[in-house]
Structures are given as C-alpha cells and as structure tokens.
Amino acid sequence: MRAVIQRVKRAEVEVEGRVTGSIGRGLLVFVGVEERDSTQDGIWLTGKIAHLRIFNDDDGVMNLSVVETGGDILVVSQFTLHANVRKGNRPSYNRAAKPEKAIPLYREFLRNLESKIGRPVQTGEFGKVMSVSLLNDGPVTILIDSRE
Prior knowledge:
Layout: E1 2-15, E2 18-23, E3 26-32, H1 39-51, E4 55-56, E5 62-64, H2 66-69, E6 72-77, H3 99-117, E7 122-123, E8 130-145
Parallel strand pairs: 3-6, 6-7
Antiparallel strand pairs: 1-2, 1-3, 1-8, 4-5
C-alpha cells in the first residue's frame, strides 16, 4: 500500500460537483492499493500516518503527530500511485489492485485510521473522478510505501 501524505492548512475533494470531504488543518492522504497488499499493509500504514511527527511544536520543530494536534485527515483513493513508467511514456497500472480487491482493503484502511486517531476521516469516493484542492502547509509532502 502506498500513500502520499501532505500537511495542509485546508483541503477538499469534489465528486460530480459536490463536496464529499473537507478538512481544515491536518493531513491530505492519497492512498493506492497494490495487487499484493493485505490487511497487514493497511494496519502498518495507518499506524505510520497517525503517528507521523510532521507538525510543529511550540519551538517550531516538526515533533507532533496529527493525533497530538487534533488535526483532521482527508483520504483520497488513487490507483495511479502504482504507475510504472520504466518502459515508454504511457504509465502502466498493472500493479494497482483491481476494485474487487482494492475496495475492501481501502475500506478497512479507513476504519483502521479512524480507530487510530479516534474520530472520523473525510474521504472522496473510490473509483470516481475527483477534483482535489488543497493549501499545502510547508510544503510538507511524504511518500510512504508499506513494501519499503
């Protein structure tokens, strides 16, 4: 499972002209499920996201997690995170999990993340074309892959 995590001042996602998720200060998380991923990948990744110390403390040092700051989380599914561009210029998505595997793992990922932070997370809609807007804070952008 792969995630791109961005520290944001605000973010929102729209599907077909309606806002499905919106947050203030917190984390925007793009997550992609790979064909070989399992429940364990999601559990490990949610722990990393919930406790990733990328928010400033009173001394201006990145030392606090989203849990400690009470920040929000917006999760957007994104199969293109598993694009392979080694050959040619057209990305191949053969490593991305098919919906019948990815959807249950994605939903389990959301439940685990909510459990770790102790409150609901905002989301887009799996498999839909989405418009995401954000104001990156820092900028701080982190890539995490459960396979690395």
